[in-house]
Amino acid sequence: MHALLVEDDDRMAQALGTALAQRGHTVRRVARAQDALRHTREAEFVLLDLGLPDLDGIELLRRLRTVCGVPLIVVTARCEERDIVQGLRAGADDYVVKPFRMAELMARIDTVRRRTDAHADRAAPGAAAVRRGDVEVDPAGRTVTVAGVEVRLTRREFDVLAFLAARPEEVHSREEILDRIWGDAFLAASRSLDVHVAGIRAKTGRSALVRTVRGYGYQLGGER
Questions:
Q1: Cα–Cα distance list, 49 to 60, 143, 219 (Å)
Q2: Which has the closest alpha carbon to 188: 224, 156, 217?
Q3: pLDDT tens-digit series, residues 115-163
């Protein structure tokens, strides 16, 4: 796999590049946001530091997500909850805070890639669209429309919504959703799932589209 490594610290970039190469990945390292935007289309996954010299990393993340749908993991020293929430809402598939264990980061990369591949395989060409009121979720086309207008969700937001829409009558536990979408049921105590659900509600403008079952999980809501 070809990785785009966006990191302005030379020592960190060297360590990450070496670890990735040892696992058979090819790596292009860039230190500036403009270079990242120029090379993003060749990448199969992205590691993104947020502390860049020419543009705030969150803004770069938003711009990357307009042109790039590959797995993307933020690797940064920013550890405040606000930063983590912003990163996930902007489209990061995972958020890793420095300092970190290299083996853990490599495992997270593998998990994100597996889940991305699995969701692509499950989106069969004949999969039927699901409607709730004026909202339509099309798993095959990976699109969501509200009153006929397409709404842009991040890949992870879409995966959550499509998973709920695949079995709309069922209530899904947090652990089940995290295991299927994130590949790690032990993330149940984190806010990552809640952040993505909030993003779905805000972007569609339909707060009832995802129903919270307090103390348990979520279900597809809205009018049939």
A1: 10, 29, 34
A2: 217
A3: 776 655 555 455 689 999 999 999 888 999 999 999 999 888 999 999 9
8 Å CB contact between 8 and 32: yes
Query: pTM for this structure?
Result: 0.68
104 burial via Cβ count (<10 Å: 0-12, 13-18, 19+): exposed
HSE-up of residue 118 (Cα within 13 Å, Cβ side): 14
Lookup result for tokens 């809205």: 222
By CB atoms closer than 10 A (0-12, 13-18, 19+), residue 49 is buried
Count the neighbouring beta carbons within 10 Å of the beta carbon of residue 59: 13
Q: Name residues whose C-beta falls within 8 Å of residue 199's C-beta, 6 or more positions apart in sequence.
A: 88, 89, 153, 154, 157
